[in-house]
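Q: Structure for this?
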Amino acid sequence: MTWDQQRIEDIITASAPEEITYLEAIRAALREEMQRDPSVLLLGQDIGVYGGAFKVTQGLIEEFGEKRVIDTPMAELGMIGAAIGMAFMGLRPVIEMQFADFISVGFDSIVNYAATNHYRWGAAVPIVIRAPNGGGLRGGPFHSQSPEAWFTHTPGLKVVMPANPVDAYGLLLSAIRDPNPVIYFENKLLYRSMRAPVVLGAQGIIPIGKAALARVGEELSIITYGSMVRESLIAAEQLAADGRSIEVLDLRTLKPLDKEAVLETARKTGKVLIVHEAQITSGFGGEVAALIAEHAFEYLDGPITRIAAPDTPVPYSPPLEDAYRPDTAKILKAARELLAY
Amino acid sequence: MTWDQQRIEDIITASAPEEITYLEAIRAALREEMQRDPSVLLLGQDIGVYGGAFKVTQGLIEEFGEKRVIDTPMAELGMIGAAIGMAFMGLRPVIEMQFADFISVGFDSIVNYAATNHYRWGAAVPIVIRAPNGGGLRGGPFHSQSPEAWFTHTPGLKVVMPANPVDAYGLLLSAIRDPNPVIYFENKLLYRSMRAPVVLGAQGIIPIGKAALARVGEELSIITYGSMVRESLIAAEQLAADGRSIEVLDLRTLKPLDKEAVLETARKTGKVLIVHEAQITSGFGGEVAALIAEHAFEYLDGPITRIAAPDTPVPYSPPLEDAYRPDTAKILKAARELLAY
Amino acid sequence: MALLSPELLLQAHYWMRLTRIFDDRVMLLHRQTKIAGGCFSQLGHEAISVGAALALGPDDVIAPMHRDLGAYLIRGMTPRRLMAQYLGRAAGVSGGRDGNTHGCGDLSLGIFGYVSMLPASMGITVGAAHAFKLRGEPRVALTFFGDGSSSEGLCHEVLNWAAVYEVPAVFICENNQYAYSTPLSHQMRIANIADRAAGYGMPGEVIDGNDVIAVYSAVQEAVARARNNGGPTLIECKTMRMRGHAIHDNMAYVPKELINKWQQRDPLQHFEAYLTEQGLINDAGIQAVVARAEAEVEDAVTYAEACPYPDPATLMVGVYA
Amino acid sequence: MALLSPELLLQAHYWMRLTRIFDDRVMLLHRQTKIAGGCFSQLGHEAISVGAALALGPDDVIAPMHRDLGAYLIRGMTPRRLMAQYLGRAAGVSGGRDGNTHGCGDLSLGIFGYVSMLPASMGITVGAAHAFKLRGEPRVALTFFGDGSSSEGLCHEVLNWAAVYEVPAVFICENNQYAYSTPLSHQMRIANIADRAAGYGMPGEVIDGNDVIAVYSAVQEAVARARNNGGPTLIECKTMRMRGHAIHDNMAYVPKELINKWQQRDPLQHFEAYLTEQGLINDAGIQAVVARAEAEVEDAVTYAEACPYPDPATLMVGVYA
Ligand SMILES: Cc1ncc(C[n+]2csc(CCOP(=O)(O)OP(=O)(O)O)c2C)c(N)n1
Ligand SMILES: Cc1ncc(C[n+]2csc(CCOP(=O)(O)OP(=O)(O)O)c2C)c(N)n1
Ligand SMILES: [Mg+2]
Ligand SMILES: [Mg+2]
């Protein structure tokens, strides 16, 4: 397919967007970028013939060949280092971590090389690291993590965390086109459980650094991202049935954070509930709370409240994981308390 | 020397404590623990004959021999893994990272094995990782970092960060005796630039998890830790000259955090300035701010303010590093603004 | 090659059967959605974990991985505890905190639990062996790693560390032709992972991982060397993963012929034929072993299914010692 | 062994002299407290970086490390820029953001800057080489690593990766007997790091790192092989670090005899004796080279000292591209 044909197809698709899953949206974004830009290539374990542990890259090796969909040995630190070298030579590698949990093994290449390089000697590092994160699937302590806060603390990285198929698609386009290293957290629970009509092609792009109001409300702001947006929206819906008006801000990008949007919703409602799937202590919610407590202090009508996982590894057994995991019920409870404050 | 002799010496020492540097305090704590407990041993690069990059372990190989002061190959991930295995077999390894900055290379062994193990199958991991951190020494981006926030987010770890020789000594005793993995951040700038009389021996122990009021005041609380305690105390002193009363809380332990102490000082003064050397975004200050904004909300008389490094790598050149680094002047400025609020 | 007593041979047979029957049952329970999350099959690997674990002494320690069920069993982790673990029950080894054989450690049995990050157990193992060396104890530490794990940096750091300090450790590479879907040809340009041992200055050996006698003999020799201050050994067991990487994987990527070839060399059938040939067992004897193992597994399932799940109120317990 | 033209030999001599004189001056400036932080000496390593860098073509890329000053110079990083870098000035390669040769990269010169975490540059290098391979470009990527770095997991991952994908890369191990204070005997139980190449399925070679002709020849051969789709090579240069690890280190831990032994084999004196013997240079010629190099370094210092420090207002600039 030529570039022009693709554009035409896009426009057709755009006019009547298809319902696709979150996972399909990611795959579609990879395809879109690989078709558009021959320098885009994929690296990861089992992403070729097997199509990846979650089948996100299924069909791509057939379409783009072994030189652009590269099955790697197990060597995360080396793989990310290699991706940086490829990026210096003009390629745009998109890495799949088999699970976000394994990013700890490749950690140094990310936080010390990829993140600092442009600042130090001006060479950009356009790489994307796709990290399937999150629990609720009985994956246990090492297949359920949400380690975004390690990366939001690291200058030079960008961190995105889409909450729906539209953003999954559009943010991946942006991430691949971005000249900086981007950690793209994709939520495993949403992979197949969430569908939406997605405008494909360039029109579907979502800018990095812009939050989205997922629901407009007046009395309380839920500020959240990733898998917890859906839970929060359900909670807001239920509260609406009780006649309460809840705003839900989906951060979409954690770094650079859309501070304006955060402060605006906080100032508007005066009550803030921050929700994330990761453990609470030193989680990204702390940063959001701190910003509000400093810059929207005068507007606050109640304590800034956080709902997040407790400070334990993600447990495996269903009753434990359910107790561990933030969800609509826990959000509802906290929101009601805050509304009553 | 027998145990009893040692005790007697301790008591003598305790009655007239010697002035020693922060670095000497660390060395003294290592000696104390190695004398007391034959299962304590040291692992690290160049810590033997060379005495370590900063000479913290100088003399210890002569005193305790090669079996207890082990010069390792460069292999941080393996070294920390090995330390865990030693700990399972009843030893108490104390690891020296040559610089805190290199902890990223051994990251996975810490956050995924050491931290989760007791929760998963009940085997304790009594290891200490000493991580010389901090800037101000023109060390550049890779010899100046303060990466504590990566670890405060990880359940199962303890994180301590002494601000003076007394705490450096007493917290290291506690860390070595603790049955959990403890990351012990020791500040390089304080190594030789800070002296104090230190009570040696068991009486000198400082418990993990307890903050200390470094200065009592009424109008504003500076909550800080590590190298910034000294800067904050100087600022408080200068403000006292202006007739202002500043409280300084030295957290000492970041994880588990002494929440009571944090909330108490916030409730008391109603104005909180949080100061740390690490970069601001997603730094540990966010956690402190969030706790206060949630649990001391009604007591606040002003925005919770953070003074921390900007979101860049630690730059090398003196004018850049000076601009980067939080210091007394920056603390003073923020404190005055907050006092005037 | 060490001469194995008839008792030991029959023990090995029992453990291999138990391993296989337990594993088949786990697969079934997973299909019945009684086990949540992922599950790794042991099929084809039974000779390795059984042969290796039998070669250890009671004070030795072991860090089994995800295809080493036999080692857990031999070291005294009961089918009941293990089944409760698979079913996420409070009585499981990890009390429901970790899944399948992850986190299945028990220091009183000399077993280290593993994490998913491969090959983290190699680090733990070399440290335990180092502790033995430092204290002059005649104990050995043993662990396993896959062909896939051999590409990880940690594998290198640990093998070098073991050699530098001459620690009493035995490293067993289970080369089962694949790391998940990735064939050896995408992982390395050498014929034998054991050949890397020379690059560390330690002995390396390639053996038939489907022959429990070969495994036992090689490991026993390595263990004896380690115990006598002879330092570490790397043993590569050639084998084949006979099911998908994990239960959801139909391994369409594996050529049929390869599976067929290795099916001819099934470690259990091979061993039973040998035992029969040697007159150590007959069909009835085999049936008796099968029946005994099946009964144990049945008992374990009954027990585990009756066990309560962990109490959510205990969620925060045990993060710290 | 490749035959080197007289021009090339004289070039090599010039670069080695420049490297040494520049390095001596850096040491002096540090003692004069004009350079802040740490500094690594090049003494004894000049033949390696110079020999290797000269063997590359203009489109090849290189990731020099902390003892490879000669490579930066040869690739076109001027003494002025480098000296401004050492002095932390705005005109330095990293604009004062990074210190000494850290972060001294310039893609227009085909040079990758390094980070302290060793041996991170190996990862970058194998990736660049992989890019050449994927695009079918006749280009080569080359990097250096120390004996100490050889123990890091990343070294293994990268060498294996290079072999698996048969990328056009050359890896040069500078075995200078020590990693900081740690002698080889505490780092490995083998005689030659290059022997590990066999464990990856790539050629490995041990050469005299104090002989610039040997270095050039070996690297040239490896580069030619890489360029002709022959894949990667590991070359181990035996040498000795003739000063402390960094400037503050008096290396009391190094036996005097070892230093004396290697002093006899100084790469520059050795090479000058050879050139003289071959009639390619005489004392006056050497003096002329020294004078030229000294003038360049003097000019660089004058320039750098006159350069402004970076403006603190630019602190936040460049974190993102
Ligand atoms: C560091 C790390 N990266 C990726 C994974 C995901 N993963 C789990 S098992 C596996 C393949 C392991 O292959 P091998 O080591 O050969 O063991 P096998 O399963 O074949 O026995 C992969 C890639 C992991 N567990 N750890
Ligand atoms: C991952 C990592 N760990 C530790 C260090 C600290 N360190 C800096 S140089 C060095 C020794 C390096 O030895 P080698 O690789 O032999 O290089 P040489 O300096 O001898 O040329 C060490 C331990 C580091 N830079 N990176
Ligand atoms: Mg395998
Ligand atoms: Mg060296």
